[in-house]
Amino acid sequence: MFNTEYDVIVVGGGHAGSEAAAAAANMGSKTLLITMSLQNIAQMSCNPAMGGIAKGQIVREIDALGGYSGIVTDETAIQFKMLNKSKGPAMWSPRAQSDRMRFAETWRNMLEQTTNLDFFQDMVNGLVFEEDKIVGVKTTLGIVIKSKAVIITAGTFLNGLIHIGDKTFGGGRAGEKASTGITEDLVKVGFEAGRMKTGTPPRVDGRSLDYSKMIEQPGDDNPEKFSYSTTTKPLVKQRSCYMSYTSQEVHDLLRTGFDRSPMFNGRIKSIGPRYCPSIEDKIDRFATKDRHQIFVEPEGWNTVEVYVNGFSTSLPEDVQDKALRKVAGFENVKFFRYGYAIEYDFFPPTQLTHTLETKLIKGLFFAGQINGTTGYEEAAAQGLMAGINASLKIQNRDPFILKRNDAYIGVLIDDLITKGTEEPYRMFTSRAEYRTLLRQDNADLRLTPLGFEIGLASKTRMDRVLIKQEKTDLFVKFLQDTSVKPEEINPILEENGTALIDQSMKLFKIAARPQLNFTDLQKLESVQVFIKENEIDLEIIEQTEIHVKYSGYIDKEKNQADKLNRLENVIIPDNFDFKKVKSLSIEACQKLTKIQPKTISQASRISGVSPSDISVLLVYMGR
Fold first, then answer.
1. What pLDDT shows up at residue 269?
2. Torsions phi, psi of 520, nearest 5?
3. Under DSSP, is residue 575 helix (H, G, I), strand (E, B) or coil?
4. CA 71 to each of CA 185, 393, 431, 505: distance values in angstroms, whole numbers, following the listed order
5. How many helices (H) and strands (E) would you count in the chain?
6. For residue 3, what pLDDT is reported?
7. What is the rounded CA–CA span in Å between residue 314 and residue 318?
8. Cα-Cα-Cα-Cα dihedral sign, residues 371, 374, 378, 380
9. Which of 79, 365, 477, 520 could form an SS bridge with 97, CB 3.0 to 4.6 Å?
10. What is the reported pLDDT for 278?
11. Is the pLDDT assigned to residue 386 strictly greater than 90?
């Protein structure tokens, strides 16, 4: 087998590695996925859920491009919720609780059914370079496997170190050994490396909990799904999650372990995720807060194992035990696994280009936590983009780059390579300046044509997008062209507490009123007839309603995006010597030299580069 050279080797079988392998193989590249355990492909190392604020948009985008995460999530979900429904549609974010074991099994089954994809179980402990190019990998069995491109998606395994109280041991995840050798080889050829930290809560026996003392958190009454594919269906039945709270007594008990906590006694020196802190970090940072939420999440349909979300910790096991028993409903809790923290190597992502290829070594790509991110969704998105671009590179095709106004994935990658990160990076809607354009409901309209063009999204997907767009446009035109008389609409307007009309008015103007929704409009006979004759489904109705009510905001963001894209077209030559531009500030010159932005637009987003520096650059470039 290893006498054959692969087009793409993917190192690591987590969420980034799985999407990378699927994308590269589906793009026609002969691909090898190497992982230390074939039983743990796409393992949910932390919470058994996909999506959430901004993360749900990313999963929809992955699916729209032709990735697998949305399909796997739908096939293995046990609960679905659309978060932020009380806010505008730019904030709506889908989230699903998953069956942890079925999730990994379904991912593996899908990968095994993917043409051009081989698997090998071993640890990669070395990289093979020829000058400034990668040509293969070495494994602990001493096997050298040649490849035209390599994607490293090592997660938390690179020199991973697990901490529980005053105990420390090597590992990339509970029960799995750390990976060694890769960091050392990369540092030797000039890469800058750092350390990050993340943590996970205890897993407990659901049979030992008293749910009557908790607040039930059911799924949506009419659950949706992630994938735009017709192969998956919304859930018919769901499992509830539950919520409880810590108390001052719990916090006091947790504090008794601070002197043995690796976070406070100096053993952990790296930075953890700001927006998913450990429970000890929360009670230390927010000392005035007398309680914190605890979410009780089942790990599957048939297992009794429960994930204690919000109680991430590396405190000693005896402290974890005593403190958790004081949380309402956990009085008789039985632990399956204690919480722990893990430190691991990462490589500052400013060392990458927008394709996720390294600047230093050609053909070498990084995706996932190696780039300083946290979260399955962020990792999967990077894996998908690295897999696509590795494949395009070896096929001598143009790179595939998503701009900030194209997708949350574009925001994610641009943030990483332009700004870098000193703490685990997590996506939020607030990071996207064009979030009205980048909604979860229109990811297929935005991205499936692009996925189809590069050969990843199927023709079936593309045909569905065309129908969706045509029917939405048709419905909008119907509303613009159709008038309604006062006697038809006034009873509905009165019922919804909005101003009555005294002469005929176009439906579009009526539909734009915030007090009305399209359920009200469907009481009109003309609308009912149109919907029936044109086979307009709920997805088209929602798409049309968003277009009508938010058209002003959407147009405004499109204009802003157009201005940004004009700066995107001002290209900065490769290896440009910024010292030649005399009027640049010293900080700007240093930052620009380090990052080597590709466009003026990217340069404008670098911390330390001011608007006046951008003006100087534009003048220098003859603009």
1. 73
2. -65, -45
3. coil
4. 36, 27, 26, 44
5. 20, 22
6. 67
7. 11
8. positive
9. 79
10. 87
11. yes
| The predicted structure's pLDDT at residue 277 | 81
Q: Which residues are bridge partners to 49 per DSSP?
A: 97
Q: What confidence category does residue 1 fall into, taking pLDDT thresholds of 50, 70 and 90?
A: low
Give the pLDDT mean for 371-376: 95
The Cα–Cα gap between 490 and 501 comes to 7
In this prediction, residue 567 carries a pLDDT of 83
DSSP string for residues in 411-443: HHHHHHHHH--SS-B---GGG-TTTTTS-GGGH
For the cut 60, the answer to whether the pLDDT of residue 510 exceeds it is yes
pLDDT given at position 273: 73
Give dist(CA 133, CA 128) in Å, integer: 9
Of 206-215, 277-286, 353-362, give the lowest mean pLDDT range.
277-286
**Quick one: pLDDT at residue 2?**
65
Q: Residue 34 phi/psi, 5° resolution?
A: -110, 125
Lowest mean pLDDT among 189-203, 215-229, 553-567: 553-567
CA distance 623 to 619: 5
Instruction: Find tokens 């991430």 and name the residue.
Output: 312
Within 10 Å of residue 262's Cβ, how many Cβ atoms?
24
Buried b / exposed e over 529-538, threshold 16 CB at 10 Å, is ebbeeeebee
Q: Which residue is listed with tokens 């297992």?
A: 303
> What is the rounded distance in angstroms from the CA atom of residue 594 to the CA atom of residue 287?
40
Q: What is the pLDDT of residue 413?
A: 97
First to last CA, the chain: 55
Q: How far apart are alpha carbons 183 and 191 in whole angstroms?
A: 9
Q: What is the DSSP string of 106-144?
A: HHHHHHHTSTTEEEEES-EEEEEEETTEEEEEEETTS-E
Average pLDDT for residues 185-209, to the nearest whole number?
95
CA distance 417 to 602: 10
Question: Helix axis angle, 100-112 relative to 69-76, nearest 10°?
Answer: 130
Q: Is 480 helix (H, G, I), strand (E, B) or coil?
A: helix
Task: State yes or no: pLDDT of 76 exceeds 90.
Answer: yes
Q: What is the pLDDT at residue 292?
A: 95
User: What are the pLDDT digits (tens) for 243-276?
Assistant: 999 999 999 999 998 888 777 767 777 777 776 7
Amino acid at site 110: M
Q: Report CA-CA distances (Å) from 557 to 322, 335, 403, 482, 552.
A: 52, 50, 14, 28, 9
Angle at 456 between CA 93 and CA 26, to 5 degrees: 115
Q: How do the residues of the chain divide into helix, strand and coil, expressed in percent and rounded to 5?
A: 40, 20, 40
C-beta neighbour count of 422 within 10 angstroms: 11
One DSSP character per residue, 252-318 reads HHHHTTGGG-TTTSSS--SB--TTS--HHHHHHHTTT----EEEEEE-SSS--EEEEET----S-HH
**Whether 321 contacts 256, CB under 8 Å:** no
Contacts 24+ apart (CB under 8 A), 427-431: 427/54, 427/55, 427/58, 427/375, 427/377, 427/378, 428/53, 428/54, 428/275, 429/53, 429/54, 429/57, 429/90, 429/91, 429/93, 431/54
CA atoms of 329 and 314, how far apart (whole Å): 22
For residue 363, how many other CB atoms are within 10 A of its CB? Answer: 21
